[in-house]
Amino acid sequence: MWLYLMGLIGLYYLLRWYRERQVVSNLRDKYIFITGCDSGFGNLLARQLDLRGLRVLAGCLTEQGAEQLRNQTSNRLETVILDVTQTENISTVTQWVKERVGDRGLWGLVNNAGIALPLAPNEWMTKQDFMKILDVNLLGVIEVTLSLLPLVRKAKGRVVNVASIMGRLSLLGGGYCISKYGVEAFSDSLRRELFPFGVKVAVIEPGFFKTGITDKEKHVQNLRKIWDQTSPEVKKAYNKKFLDSYIKYTGTMDKMCESNLSLVTDCMEHALTACYPRTRYSAGWDAKLVYLPMSYLPTALVDTMVYLNSPSPVKAQ
Ligand SMILES: NC(=O)c1ccc[n+]([C@@H]2O[C@H](COP(=O)([O-])OP(=O)(O)OC[C@H]3O[C@@H](n4cnc5c(N)ncnc54)[C@H](OP(=O)(O)O)[C@@H]3O)[C@@H](O)[C@H]2O)c1
Ligand SMILES: *[C@@H]1O[C@H](CO)[C@@H](O)[C@H](O)[C@H]1NC(C)=O
Ligand SMILES: *[C@@H]1O[C@H](CO)[C@@H](O)[C@H](O)[C@H]1NC(C)=O
Ligand SMILES: *[C@@H]1O[C@H](CO)[C@@H](O)[C@H](O)[C@H]1NC(C)=O
C-alpha cells in the first residue's frame, strides 16, 4: 500500500519535472519588457535574459541605472526611462515598446519595480505613507499591465508579477503587505480573464533577499524619521524603548536575507520560457519552509507565533 503511494508520488514528480522542462521555441525573437531594472532582481533578470539571447526591453527609473545596464549587456538590449507612477510616462513607453515589437507583439511583461518604504507599525503612519507604496507596487503594476496588455495578447505571451511572500502573510504594518496582497488578487483575476486568449499569468513570491529594498540603514533611518513625526499620543502609547527594540529587530532582518538573487530570477526566467509555467513561484528557503507553510496555519496560531517572536510595546515598558 505505502509502496504504491510512494510510487504514485514519485511518478507525479517525474511527470511534473518532465513537463516543466519543455521550453518554448524561437526565444531569440521574443521581446520581454521588465520594469525596475536599475538594481536587484530586475537588473539581474535583464542581464540573464540578454545572455540567453532574448530581446530585452528594460525599463529603468534613472538614466544612470540604464547606462550601467547597457554597459554590461549586448547591444540587443534596449533601455527606456519609466516611472511606473506616471501615466504619461507609461503611455509613451507603451508606444516605444509597440514600435519595437511590431506585429510579433510582446512575449513577456515583468512587473518588477517596487519599493518597501515607508515601513513601520500602522498607527505611526499617515494615509500618504500608505499611498506612496500602493502607487508604485500596486497601481503601477495595474496601469503598466493594462497599457501593455494588447501587445501581450498579440503574442499570446506572459505577464509575470513580482509579489512577495508578504503577499501571503501580513507580517508588516504599512502599505507593503497590502500592496503585495493586491498584486496577488489582481494576478488571480487577470489569469482567469486572459486564459481564453492564451495569455498566461505567473506570480513570483520571494522571501527575504539582499537588495536595495532590504537595506538595513535605509530601514533604520526610515523608522527614526517616522517616529519623529508621530503624535505625542502615539509616542506615549508605544514609548522610546519600543522604538529601540524595534530598530534592533529590524537589524536582525538584515541577517536573514539570502544573497543569491538567482533563486528569484531563475523562477522569472522559467515563467517566461517554459511551455508550462507555474501559477505561483515561491523563491528562497525561508519562503518555502517557513512563511508559505505558516500562511496555511490557523490565524490564532500565527498571531501567537508572531507575538512571541517580535518586540511588543507592552513588553518594552
Ligand atoms: N528583496 C526582497 O527581499 C524582496 C522580497 C519579495 C519581493 N520583492 C520584490 O521584488 C521587486 C524588486 O525589488 P528588489 O528587491 O530587486 O529591490 P530593488 O533593488 O530596490 O529594485 C527595485 C527597482 O525598482 C525601481 N523603482 C522604484 N520605484 C520605481 C518607480 N516608481 N518606477 C519604476 N521603477 C521604480 C528601483 O529604482 P531605484 O533603485 O532607482 O529606486 C529599483 O531599481 C519589488 O517588487 C519587491 O517588492 C523583493
Ligand atoms: C559606461 O561605460 C562608459 C564607457 O566605457 C563609461 O564612460 C561610463 O562611465 C560607464 N557608465 C556607467 C554608469 O558605468
Ligand atoms: C519618463 O519621464 C522621465 C522624467 O519625467 C523622462 O526623462 C523620460 O524620458 C520619460 N520616458 C519616456 C519614455 O517618455
Ligand atoms: C545561486 O543559485 C543558483 C540557482 O539555484 C545556483 O545555480 C547557483 O550555483 C547559486 N550560486 C551561488 C553562488 O550559490
TrEMBL record:
Superkingdom in the source lineage: Eukaryota
Gene3D superfamilies registered for this protein in UniProt: NAD(P)-binding Rossmann-like Domain
Annotated signal peptide: none
GO terms, molecular function: oxidoreductase activity
InterPro entries documented for this protein: NAD(P)-bd_dom_sf, Sc_DH/Rdtase_CS, SDR_fam
PROSITE patterns xref list: ADH_SHORT
Keywords assigned by UniProt, alphabetized: Oxidoreductase
One BP term from GO: steroid metabolic process
Protein family: Belongs to the short-chain dehydrogenases/reductases (SDR) family.
Name of the featured protein: Retinol dehydrogenase 16-like
